[in-house]
Amino acid sequence: MPAKKTDPKPVFSVVAPVFNEIGSVEEFYKTVVSVMHPLKQPWEFVLVDDGSTDGSTDKIRELATKDAHVKLIIFARNFGHQIAVTAGLDYSRGDAVIIIDADLQDPPAVMLDLIAKWKEGYEVVYAVRRKREGESWLKLVTASLFYRLIFRITDVKIPLDTGDFRLIDRKVVDVMGQMRERHRFLRGMAAWVGFRQVGMEYDRKERFAGKTKYPFSKMLKLALNAITSFSYFPLQVATYLGFICAGISILAIPVVAYLRLSNQGSLLGQATTLIAVLFLGGVQLITLGILGEYVGRIYDEVKGRPLYIVSEAPEYKK
Ligand code: UDP
Ligand code: MG
User: Fold this and answer.
1) Quick one: residue 156, left, alpha or beta (phi over 0 = left, psi -120 to 50 = alpha)?
2) What CATH code is carried by the domain that includes residue 87?
3) 50 and 80 in contact (C-beta within 8 Å)?
């Protein structure tokens, strides 16, 4: 970690990942400032530019020159939302760190409620989505299914309908900072560490501008990361499938033998053989694929590359 500036230590850090948010970043900045300013406590605004190509980077640079609260971290390329938030946590210095999206879907005013709970002594205050406005039905259905699946198959009880919008105490940020796994699912990691946690409901708003940066492919990747990082269930599925197939064949052998010997008919033709072979082949390939998902992740971990590459972080001296 780079050495950091020695200005007064902030009480609050607001961390936001920014990826091509030119339409919302200025409004987002203004709204966050209007919420944080009246608190009259030192705070910092850590904006992580995740390889934007639409001019958001210059916009953030401009904000940083005007307002000393703004600290910018500019990635060398797009590393993904979870990694961008991780960098924000790594660089943040506040006693309480708030993770929030830059598209104004997480209303900045809710930060005050999170802070109130933190003052009551909670170490992780996560915001639970009561309503989600302006999302496609596909996103709503897949997200809802995903949260419930994850809840069922993992040992860590990851809160339902909860994104990354949350407040995390410094103690927890430090612990999470030690967890350098490459395929990150921060909500799961934050649940895994323990500490005193509480949820707070809020209504998730529509995007202020632009389109979602989480197309279906990225959502699927996040879901796979979440499952493989927190559960062996898919690997166990392979074992279950093996037992089921073996069980069916053991039961089928005497039946087929009886039918043949009693001359009541027999299994005819290549079709039956073909179906059995294709079925088993399919099951084997699927289980191989599942194994591959885990092996690929082990390979990524073993390479030990840095999680992200910062091209510019002027507030933080090397
Ligand atoms: N984001 C990012 N890198 C990415 C994708 C998204 O930093 O590769 C940021 C994005 O700018 C936003 C936040 O992550 O601030 C959440 O993304 P988005 O709003 O697109 O996701 P959704 O709310 O649709 O799930
Ligand atoms: Mg969004």
Assistant:
1) beta
2) 3.90.550.10
3) yes
Distance set, CA 183 to CA 24, 89, 93 (Å): 28, 16, 24
Quote the pTM value.
Answer: 0.86
CA of 271 to the centre of ligand 1 (A): 50
CA of 313 to the centre of ligand 2 (A): 25
Reading the chain (318 residues) residue by residue, the pLDDT tens digits are: 343 455 678 989 999 999 999 999 999 999 999 999 999 899 999 999 999 999 999 999 999 999 989 999 999 999 999 999 999 999 999 999 999 999 999 999 999 999 999 999 999 999 998 877 777 888 888 888 888 888 888 888 888 888 899 999 999 999 999 999 999 999 999 999 999 999 999 888 888 888 888 888 888 888 889 889 888 899 998 889 889 988 998 998 888 888 888 887 766 777 888 888 898 899 899 999 999 999 999 999 999 999 999 998 887 764
**Closest ligand relative to 24 C-alpha:** 1
Tally of structural domains, the chain: 2
Quick check: helix, strand or coil at residue 262? coil
208 and 242 fall within a common domain:
no
